[in-house]
Amino acid sequence: MVNDFNIHLYTKDAGSIDDQIVEDTELRPEDLVSNLLRYKNHFNKSGVLQANFHLFNSYVLNINGFENFKKLVNKEFPGSTLTLLCDFRNADIVKYLKAIKSKGFSFVKFHSYVQNITVKDFEKVVEVSIEAEKIGLGICIDASYGTNKLYTNDNLAMAAQILNNVNGTPVVLLHSGGPRIFESMLLALQNTNVYLETSLSLDFYEGSSLWKDYAYVYRRIGLDRILFASDFPYQPVDEAIKTFSRFKEYLNMTEAELQLIRFQNFVNLKKLVCNT
Fold first, then answer.
1. Domains, the chain
2. How much is the pTM?
3. Where are the alpha helices (DSSP H) in the chain?
4. Are 63 and 31 in contact (CB under 8 A)?
């Protein structure tokens, strides 16, 4: 059984990755309901108990029917959390963040590639992060590394600026930073509120020397700050679980350590944000 920290609900057959991202940013509540029901069997068969559902439509909470989606999540996967891609450019950011919190979200997310966040935006992102911490929202940062934007949209540089100003609320570096795993480690060693999650990267880099680096880093910062995640549907949950099982053997994890990453760390993390 697993708690999956990174699940999306766009349509798996939406086309190219760019098409999928566009769809993800446009999903309405009825789409989220439909897709959750569509994927429910896969989640159940894979042993998903709880999930952190990532929603990319930054204003989905204002669309009629959102409460129906929340009720369905609570019914099918009780104890799950919601993360919203944060429109950090919003003119009334405090009101916007309070609305996000009041609708039951636990985390806001920044995605450098999707939101085209460059150095000139860092000051605003930091301001929003400070306000998010004040009202009890955790922060997720897409820390993948790739595409032609890998040099212009530096997500870990942004993370470092956030961490200079936010030291209480959890900050989760999604995908563990990809090939920049050691940079993620350095941020985590200095900031005890930093967590890493496993989605996509373990699968993508399996067979490379990076697995050795991941094993070292996860041990170095402590397995109590590592979260299992799949990045579904980019990676099916059952395949991510199989990959992680191979990584468990590679890392010589005990069953207790496996339970930490696949289940308990998610539970513990929820206690650190107000929406539990």
1. 2-270 (3.20.20.140)
2. 0.96
3. 17-26, 29-46, 66-76, 93-102, 112-115, 122-134, 155-163, 181-190, 201-204, 210-221, 237-251, 255-259, 265-270
4. no
